[in-house]
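re: ur question from earlier - yeah i can do the single chain one, its not a big deal. heres the input i used so u can compare w yours
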Amino acid sequence: MPEGDTVYLAAKRLHGALAGKVLTRSDLRVPKYATADLTGRTVLDVTPRGKHLLTRIEGGLTLHSHLKMDGAWKIFVAGQRWTGGPTHQIRAILGTADRTAVGYRLPVLELLRTSDEDRAVGHLGPDLLGPDWDPALARQNLLRDPARPLGEALLDQRNLAGIGNVYKSELCFLLRVTPWLPVGDLPAEHAAQLPALAQWLLEANRDRPARNTTGRREQNLFVYGRAPRPCLYCGTPIRVADQGDGSRERPTYWCPACQWGPIPPPRPGRPPRQPSAYR
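and the output i got, formated as tokens:
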């Protein structure tokens, strides 16, 4: 799933292509909005909010989209062949005289009044890449449920907005704790530095096409997607297991030697997750 830095970059590209220009083509391929016509209106701006995209349009309208697992906005110049996927996967088309933005596989697409944006994003915590970023509030939110595993708390967008599964695993590695450690068991210095570290990682990557948390050219990530390869620090094989509440589990990576804290017990009748091909 795209994370805050990826969504920030997508918003930047959409803003550069559409903002300040009049829409000459508008096609929202969602039954509820199939008859909506935005042509003749000027795109005011495209703003990221956590993992959400808000395309604000003249007349007090906002097109709200969320990429979820594999959604994408692609931008094409006039006459360019669209290459984002088959036609039946297109959910939105916003065209100007010289650029066309095409939304593929968008699981969330809604047209709402700009004044009602809070209905879509008002539940989010401080945005790691937004003007509302408040590290003290983010820390307070994370510590609100001290028994909750750190990995789950980081993914909860109500605590702080923008972290996904990759940064969850990478942040826990950098803090040297497992994602299953209860938030309340974090040493005070770790809890204090966590919001700033998260923001630093996303800010460092928000303009990069390839995410990097290691500072090394030859290896972009410390643990995510690397099981069972050796840890870059100690050589111990990286491990992977599912984390979640049972209804929404995600592969989670960690080094059993570098990171301290609880790990998930084997689940009866369920074989351990096998690492996928190296990423």
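The helical segments are 4-18, 118-121, 135-142, 150-155, 165-175, 188-205. not sure if urs matches, ping me
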